[in-house]
Design brief:
The complex is a heterodimer of chains A (608) and B (74).
Chain A (H helix, E strand, L loop, with lengths): L7 E6 L4 E6 L2 H7 L2 H12 L13 E4 L14 E6 L6 E6 L3 H7 L2 E7 L6 E6 L2 E6 L8 H12 L4 E4 L2 H4 L7 E3 L3 E3 L4 H7 L2 E7 L9 H16 L4 H7 L4 H8 L20 H7 L1 E5 L9 E6 L4 E4 L3 H7 L8 H14 L3 H16 L18 H13 L3 H5 L3 H8 L9 E2 L2 E2 L9 H9 L12 H7 L6 H13 L2 H5 L4 H4 L8 H9 L5 H22 L13 H4 L14 H15 L9 H6 L8
Parallel strand pairs in A: 1-6, 7-12
Antiparallel strand pairs in A: 1-2, 3-4, 3-6, 4-5, 7-8, 9-10, 9-12, 10-11, 13-14, 14-15, 16-17
Helix pairs in contact in A: 1-2, 2-23, 7-22, 11-13, 12-14, 17-19, 17-25, 19-23, 19-25
Chain B lengths: L1 E5 L13 E5 L4 H7 L9 E4 L2 E3 L10 E5 L6
Parallel strand pairs in B: 1-5
Antiparallel strand pairs in B: 1-2, 3-4, 3-5
The chains are: A alpha+beta (608), B mainly beta (74).
Chain lengths: 608, 74
């Protein structure tokens, strides 16, 4: 028995329907802790070199952590890891909600999907009972309808992670949905699940989670909840959630506008969190164990819809990035994307890129299925979300992701395909925010903000500066922040409510019985960061520093309007940032971890 | 005469390890934020006595000011 863990890993081989249950290895739990750590370890160890992301050898690793399912604020995070069909590299996407708690109550630390089923199935887990069941009748249906179906069939206490038509049709940025409005959104984890012909995982458990010291755990957990409830900014954070950042991003030139041509939007006010709260928000919604619910349930009278969201990323990418200022239209785009199961960040980028192509004459009505694809066209956006999910017409091109779509179209469109390593950039324009630009360039999955978010820091210390201190800050964030994904918890209580991170240490010790300081956790974070880097090297012949370069939009195209008008980072500074980053990481000048770094992290067995 | 200013804990590295300050009334929010070593441009939301205000708001006696900066991203 391992304190803080479910204790078991189940492997489902979908090719032959065989299910195997193993004990969670103690040494893996010791060195990688859980969640994202388990995902990175099993991906590297078990998916063979050069495996096709859409072949039977690729795996989908779903993992909880030692915080998951316990009474610690934000303990509802679940991690999905795979080899990405979007980037051909490491993909790890974190999902909130209640799924991970049920995993732990069913005694599971990981669910590993292997092989490919010959027909649509779903996985039913009820404590020790695990069944692969027929899902033919559910194939082709939207996520909302199917999740309702499972809730009615098995009961509200069963939790569901599922894909929509986007995943079934293997859109490389298809997501996995849960709880009607939560997603493991990035990197195509839903495409891998769809390729394996798994429509859903339905789970319920009743087992206790062992903890090392029940009384200390209770006390430390209560301390954390007390700190959250007394936090100065709890009320404001809860009122707006992530949408509190919209107005600020607009003000400082970080709000993606018209395919990131600018970071300020002249109609931005119509999308601000305050506007949204007033116009469409009904109430707040939190994940398992959350004292500061950032989710928002909204209702659009105009479109007669209810939706969870939109949150900031969707507002940025499906709103300002498409020149759309109607928050109700963004809410509808959010619902459509959730229902078909595609990532709103990548889809918003793909549609934004297509709109820019259209306005520049690179794509014409002949290419757009007759759509007048100017920025601001709401109906065309709705139609394209559906077409992408079915890979129909222009949707088939956009479903490739912006890197491959722009390579296919050419005509200079590659220069405004906004991505790093093939993953579309999330919602922060980085024309003049060098730490944030570096965070995107070096993020372990592609251009995603989750690992290191540094725009506030950029502006505080001088946004155009390129200094070793900035690089050090990005590396620290990359080592530390993802530890919440390793632990199976949410970082937002620490980062937005300002909860002292040292309050987590006694709670984790009481749960696991293992004394670790944050230095110890950060060391694990650094080990995982280096493994994922080695995975990119192993899987991609010719991988080098070019893969870390940002879109030329952020070193060639200074915005012509907005808060960052005429501001841009030079290519020399982009390269200087990378040079300093590699040096501080202990990597060579092509971005490969040096032997001494691997030795210090006990990673020689992972050398490529 | 004075008012109270509160900032997020994550900004303490720039503000002498403090999150609460007694500030002079009569100045605007931009100035009092700048006075404690913070670039006012990083402040995303200002709430004074429970009501949202702009950074140009002139601080009055006994005001309780919350200046929120986003640290984690969406």
């Amino acid at each position: 028995m391992m304190n803080g863990y479910g204790g078991k890993i189940i492997r489902v081989d979908l090719t032959n329907g065989k299910i195997r249950t193993d004990n969670t290895p103690e040494e893996v739990a010791r060195d990688y802790i859980g969640g994202r750590g388990f995902g990175a370890y099993y991906l590297y160890k078990e998916v063979p070199k050069n495996a096709d992301p859409l072949g039977p050898e690729n795996k989908l690793i779903i993992s909880s952590g030692p915080m998951s399912g316990l009474m610690i604020p934000g303990s509802g995070k679940c991690d999905f890891t795979t080899k990405s069909p979007l980037t051909n590299g490491y993909a790890s996407s974190s999902m909130g909600g209640h799924f991970t708690a049920e995993m732990k109550y069913a005694g599971l630390d990981c669910i590993i999907l292997e092989g490919i089923s010959s027909n649509p199935v779903y996985l039913l887990i009820d404590d020790d009972k695990v069944e692969v069941k027929d899902a033919a009748q559910l194939w082709g249906k939207g996520t909302i309808e199917v999740e309702k179906f499972f809730k009615e069939k098995y009961g509200e206490e069963f939790q569901v992670a599922l894909i929509g038509p986007g995943g079934e049709n293997i859109v490389p940025y298809a997501c996995i949905n849960h709880d009607y409005g939560r997603q493991a959104g990035r990197g195509g984890v839903g495409a891998v699940m769809g390729n394996k012909k798994v429509k859903a995982i339905v789970i319920h458990g009743t087992k206790p989670i062992p903890v090392a010291n029940l009384e200390d755990y209770r006390k430390a957990g209560m301390e954390l909840y007390k700190a959250c409830k007394e936090a100065t900014f709890l009320e404001e954070w809860t009122r707006y959630g992530t949408t509190v950042v919209t107005s600020w991003c607009d003000e400082v030139g970080a709000l993606p506008t018209r395919n990131f041509i600018s970071g300020s939007y002249e109609n931005g006010k119509d999308l601000y969190g305050q506007t949204m709260r007033e116009k469409i928000v009904i109430t707040d919604k939190g994940c398992f164990g959350c004292p500061s619910p950032c989710g928002k349930y909204s209702r659009s009278k105009k479109y007669d819809i209810n939706v969870e969201g939109p949150e900031y990323e969707t507002i940025g990418l499906m709103g300002s990035n498409l020149g759309i200022s109607d928050i109700e239209a963004v809410a509808k785009a959010n619902l459509l994307a959730d229902d078909v199961g595609i990532d709103t960040i990548s889809a918003g980028n793909a549609i934004g890129w297509a709109m820019e192509c259209y306005e520049k004459g690179i794509l014409t009505k002949e290419d757009t299925d007759g759509l007048d694809l100017k920025f601001g066209n709401i109906e065309a956006t709705f139609e394209l979300i559906d077409k992408i999910s079915r890979k129909e017409g222009l949707g088939a091109l956009l479903a490739l992701g912006v890197q491959k779509a722009s390579q296919k179209v050419g005509k200079g469109s590659e220069k405004f395909a906004i991505h790093v390593k093939g993953m579309e950039q999330s919602g922060y324009a980085t024309h003049n925010a060098t730490a944030m630009l570096l965070a995107y360039m070096t993020c372990d999955v592609g251009a995603h903000h989750n690992r290191a978010w540094a725009i506030t820091y950029d502006i505080q210390v001088g946004r155009e500066k390129v200094t070793p201190e900035k690089v050090e800050k990005v590396i620290w964030l990359q080592n530390f922040r993802p530890m919440f994904d390793v632990l199976g918890g949410c970082r937002l209580q620490w980062v937005e409510l300002g909860i002292d991170r040292d309050l987590y240490v006694p709670a984790l010790e009481a749960i696991t019985g293992i004394h670790r300081t944050w230095d110890d956790y950060e060391k694990v974070g650094e080990r995982i960061w280096n493994i994922t880097r080695l995975f990119w090297w192993r899987e991609n012949e010719g991988f080098n520093r070019e893969w870390d370069m940002p879109s030329p939009r952020f070193y060639e195209d200074a915005p012509t309007y907005g808060a960052t008008k005429d501001q841009i980072t030079s290519i020399e500074d982009v390269n200087l940032l990378l040079d300093m980053y590699y040096e501080q990481r202990g990597w060579d000048n092509s971005g490969y971890p040096l032997p001494e770094k691997m030795e210090s992290l006990n990673l020689m067995e992972f050398a490529v | 005469m004075t008012a109270k200013l509160q900032i997020p804990a994550a900004l303490m590295e720039f503000s002498l390890e403090k999150t609460e300050f007694i500030v002079e009334s009569g100045k605007n929010i931009n100035d009092i934020i700048r006075d404690i070593g913070i670039n006012p441009a990083i402040i995303a939301l200002v709430i004074v006595n429970g009501v949202q205000e702009t950074k140009e708001y002139i601080v009055k006696d006994d005001d309780i000011i919350k200046a929120l900066a986003v640290i984690g991203g969406g």
